[in-house]
Amino acid sequence: MHQSSAINLNQETWALLERKDRTDSDNQRMITFAKDSLYHWQKSSNYKPVNHQRGEWLISHVYAVLNHGKEALSHAEICMDITMNESLKDFDLAYAYECMARAYAALGFPQKMNKCYSNAKANWKTIKKIEDKKLFFSDLYSEPWYDGKKNQGII
């Protein structure tokens, strides 16, 4: 039951992220869904540390999209800590750097953002599956990056 709930809540979060006409209520639901998805992964019998890492990434991403930099960075740091402590590579390492970059963008810290963005881009070579590479670059090049990347000529 928990794994199914985690997956469904993750999908609901993404459905809201993709909406252009989100209301304040939708934004609050999106935060709740992302957090609840992680909660249910942690209760799942199939739980692994990578589920926690990816859950923290999603929560950070939601906060970054909503321009809540402090909250985005808090969850991005947890995501990165798990990534390093578990020696996660490939897809997860690249996304951990992307997560940090986007959180710094939301905070308006262009130098830190650019460093993490460069690390994210550099790690695309470690992603083994073609589909995962495409997904990663689609996410990396998606907005919002606020003014930081455009002003730095990175995007």
Outline the structure in words:
This protein has helices at 2-18, 24-43, 49-65, 69-85, 90-107, 110-122, 130-140, 148-152. By secondary structure, it is mostly helical. α1 packs antiparallel against α2, α4 (69-85) runs antiparallel to α5 and α5 runs antiparallel to α6. The chain starts with a helix and ends with a helix. Mean pLDDT is 93; it is low at 150-155.
What topology emerges from the helices and strands here?
Layout: H1 2-18, H2 24-43, H3 49-65, H4 69-85, H5 90-107, H6 110-122, H7 130-140, H8 148-152
Helix pairs in contact: 1-2, 2-3, 3-4, 3-5, 4-5, 5-6, 5-7
Number of helices: 8
Secondary-structure element sequence? Answer: HHHHHHHH
Number of strands: 0
**Whole-number mean pLDDT:** 93
End-to-end CA span: 41 Å
* Rg for CA atoms: 15 Å
Could you say which overall geometry the principal axes of the C-alpha atoms support?
globular
Amount of helix: over 70%
Q: What profile does the largest beta sheet have?
A: none
